[in-house]
Amino acid sequence: MNEERQHKSLWTVTTLPRDFPSLPGDLDVDVAIIGGGIAGLTTAWLLKRAGKKVAVLEMHRVLSGQTGQTTAHLTELLDTPYATLLKDFGEKGAHLAASSSRAAIEQIASLVETLAIDCGFTRVPGFRYAETDAELRDLLHEVSAARQAGLLASYTKEVPLPFPVKGALRVEDQAVFHPRQYLLALADRIPGDGCHLFENTQVVDIHDGTPCRVVTELGTVTAKAVVEATTTPLNRVAMHTKLYPYRTYAVAAPLDGPLEPGQYYDSRDPYHYVRTQRVDGMSYVIVGGEDHKVGSEEDTAARFAALEAYTRDRFPVKRIAHRWSGQIIESADGLPYIGRNVGSRHVYVATGFSGTGMTFGTLAGMVLSDLILGNQNPYAALYDAGRVKPKAGAKDFIQENAEVAFRFVADRLARPDGHHLADVAPGEGKILEVDGRKVAVYREEDGTPHAVSPVCTHLGCHVHWNNAERSWDCPCHGGRFSPTGRVLNGPALKDLPSVKLPMK
Ligand SMILES: Cc1cc2nc3c(=O)[nH]c(=O)nc-3n(C[C@H](O)[C@H](O)[C@H](O)COP(=O)(O)OP(=O)(O)OC[C@H]3O[C@@H](n4cnc5c(N)ncnc54)[C@H](O)[C@@H]3O)c2cc1C
To answer: Ligand 1 pocket test: which of 67, 206, 366 has the largest number of ligand atoms within 8 Å of its C-beta?
Structure first.
């Protein structure tokens, strides 16, 4: 059956696909980079530019992960408010978080310019607006926190939106671009001079050492250093207690009236994120939001419906042209983990980017390439992957991990959705109990059934059906599988095993 994504982003449908080869056999390089998203490709390009021999290993197609599903606001407005960062990381930490986001935007701007990449990169202002008095009180507090952290931020009542708001935090010099046009330009430049980009090459094991060994079914890559740029690191339990996967949704609609180019964020929880972009001569408004914990929403299609209604209510649009969804990975203390993996000598990770992975993914490339090259990097200490900050995020840490423990037990004991194949309609996925055993069953539109084990091959939680994307999603650490059980994204490395249904 066709295992392609159910919903494709504006970026995917407006660029040509690429076709990089698979790993042909064993290989030796300086640095093996796992994952062909923004973090992996930026790291690879910066290391190649510095003279290193790199190999990017991507299990599907480049940019088929979260980077292909992004809305690509390039912003210094992080998901964690600056007021919280000041409290938890001090003025210096909040300052570094702000200046590193600025550095990432400028890194992208400089690559766009020096490599002459045609990707619609445009500087725009960003607005976080309040619609209620309570939101306005918090917003005013955030304006002064953002200024204290060094942002070019101000409070304004002049917000160029087609509906009334109470006021907004305005921040200058943010940016928008077409992320796939930008990153395909980097990807195209990676092969050559001893460097490689391999697609359809899944890493199944990593051995730290001198050299490191990165194992795939097509061959083993030996390297002095390994970068896991896989959204969530592969199969590490300690790191996963600090990472929480959320699903988020996006739509793009051609503008049928004026909307000032910019980035706009409301102050709800979860918030909506909006921006403009011109693609192929057409102006779009792109709206994202309706986030929820992975696997916690029964009717994921309803989230698209809510987002479309929000978009039609507020913006001058006649039709929704594209809809897509993806995952964001939140960290325990609100900042990403970028650096040497805990307990490793030569293996590096980049994860926990929350909703600002375009800048943090770029920053990961900057920090990791510096660490591997032995250069100083001013941001390495703040984002250290092994940091322990019991104060920051302590409540979320306990709550999120209590939820994982709850799901681990509750989903095993939960009542099944049915007992017979007939309980699963064509196009649907359900957890059945057959002969005393839980089975995840999907039926194609023509009725053909596919039965797999519902036990996630990462750490053993039970997967849930995602009806909007037609995938089996794990609520514990965000692993996703196709209807037939193939790994769509990590941390799981192995497919869900097939199960034979009794002939009844
Ligand atoms: C709807 C949505 C809107 C967003 N909006 C914004 C925004 O406005 N601004 C912003 O800054 N960020 C935004 N983000 C977040 C941002 O897109 C992500 O944080 C970022 O793209 C993550 O990049 P990455 O390189 O870490 O991961 P990915 O792009 O997911 O790349 C990881 C790659 O690793 C590969 N991989 C995994 N396991 C293996 C394996 N075992 N072997 C080989 N390859 C493997 C995957 O196939 C994948 O291609 C948004 C995300 C979503 C979903």
So the answer is: 67
Determine if residue 470 is left, alpha or beta; phi over 0 gives left, psi from -120 to 50 gives alpha, anything else beta: left
The token duo for 495 is 């497919």
Ligand 1 centre to CA of 71 (Å) is: 11
Q: Is the pLDDT of residue 27 over 80?
A: yes
Going by alpha carbons, the residue nearest to atom 53 of ligand 1 is 326
- What tens digit of pLDDT does each residue of 387-433 get? 876 455 555 655 666 666 666 666 766 788 889 989 999 999 999 99
ipTM of the complex: 0.99
Higher pLDDT, 458 or 393: 458
Express each pLDDT in 471-484 by its tens digit: 999 888 888 999 99
Backbone angles phi, psi at 205, to 5 degrees: -160, 150
Tokens found for residue 191: 């092969």
**Nearest by Cα to 178 from 259, 101, 289, 275:** 275
Task: Domain ranges for the chain, please list them.
Answer: 25-70+181-240+334-386, 411-489
411-489: which CATH topology?
A: Rieske Iron-sulfur Protein (2.102.10)
Terminal Cα distance for the chain, rounded: 24
The encoded tokens of residue 185 equal 């330009």
* E-assigned strand segments in 208-321: 212-216, 219-228, 243-254, 263-265, 273-279, 282-293
Query: For the structural domain made of 25-70+181-240+334-386, what CATH number should be given?
Result: 3.50.50.60
What is the SS3 assignment for 463-480? CEEECCCCEEECCCCCCE
